[in-house]
Amino acid sequence: MSREASETASKAVSKAASAATGAAGKISGVSDKISEAAGKMAESAQVSKDKKNEKRSTPCVLCGVPVGSKALKLNLDDLLICPECWKRASVLGVDLADITSQELSGLSARFKANLFLPVGEALPDQSADGMYDYCALNGCGTGFSRKSAHKHFKILQDNLRPDEKVLMAFIGKNDYVSVSEHGGNFAYAITDKRFIAGQHTMLGQAFQNVTLRHINDATFSMGLVNGIIVIDTDKVKYTIGIDKESALNVNNRIHAIFDATESEPETRPDHQSASVTPSSMSAADEILKYKQLLDLGALTQEEFDAKKKQLLAL
Q1: Rounded to two decimals, what is the model's pTM?
Q2: Which residues in the chain belong to E strands, given as ranges?
Q3: Please, which pLDDT band fits residue 306 given cuts at 50, 70 and 90?
Q4: How far are the Cα atoms of 89, 293, 295, 297 from residue 300, in angstroms, in the given order?
Q5: Is the pLDDT of residue 113 over 50?
Q6: What is the DSSP letter of 13?
Q7: What DSSP character marks residue 58?
Q8: What average pLDDT is seen over the chain?
Q9: DSSP state letter for 162
Q10: I need a labelling partner for 174 at 20 to 30 A (CA). Which of 18, 23, 42, 273 fits?
Q11: Which residues are within 8 A (CB) of 69 and not within 5 positions of it... i.e. 6 or more apart?
């Protein structure tokens, strides 16, 4: 090969190598840009995820429990509320869409006074309105309407003894056989002394009461439409029909109160006293709190079961 041809070939190879280097540089640049874009996308996705997690963990303005993934926003200062509290407010007849700061403050006080009430502690408001608020906020039945339920609870209010404390209240259909066969809605309450029941009708009023020492047992079963709670006493057997979700809540609360009194002999139903010991009340109280968190979706079933075993020392 001539010298001239050799130089030409060398230049061609050098040019090709330079072009290849340039192409490699461009490819590297494109790769860097792709990596940078991917990094920004990942960072943006992480920020979005963090914001969602932060939103989920934000306390509900009414109950204080983390709002979860289905939080609802109030028009008032973009405050967040959990779906359960939205339903509770609806049952109470409160329109959250146009609520004022003052109204929200009052509603929050009602919620926090009634929700997660420690076992053995009296309702903050022992009136008919207070007992209905307790029912509505804790999912213990609502009856046909607030107005009619208030009339039933007013009978309980009027028959409370001066030193008597209401520990829980609920509403359901008495003498329940089926959806079409029952004795109508009654208001019920467990106090520190008695189990009481009342009904208001166009023909008059009915009031019944059994002291705690005469209660033998409380059982629960699930029907096709309603849950059925049976409270067996020395005098009469109360068969009460309530919607399934409310029936579960009522059953849990009844047994939390009864369980809290059975560790000491003097507090069992066949003895006079109905006091609650601090240690047993604490365990039942904690279990009830965790059950409410489970119902709100803040705990998984596994987490609830583990906590329950821990508290019961199983």
Answers
A1: 0.62
A2: 72-73, 80-81, 166-173, 185-191, 194-201, 204-211, 215-222, 226-233, 237-243
A3: confident
A4: 25, 9, 9, 7
A5: yes
A6: H
A7: S
A8: 78
A9: T
A10: 273
A11: 52, 56
